[in-house]
Amino acid sequence: MGRHRVKTDYEEVRKAQILENQARLASVGLSKTIAELRNITGKPQTEKKKHNKIDYFSTPLRRSKRLKGGNDSKVEKSSAEETNKPKRPTTAFFIFMEEFRKQYKEKHPNNKSVAAVGKAAGEKWKSFSDAEKAPYQAKVEEMMAEYQNKMQAYNINKKQQAAADVSALPRALSLIAD
Question: Which of the listed residues 1, 101, 168, 173 has the most CB atoms within 10 Å of its CB?
Answer without folding.
Answer: 101
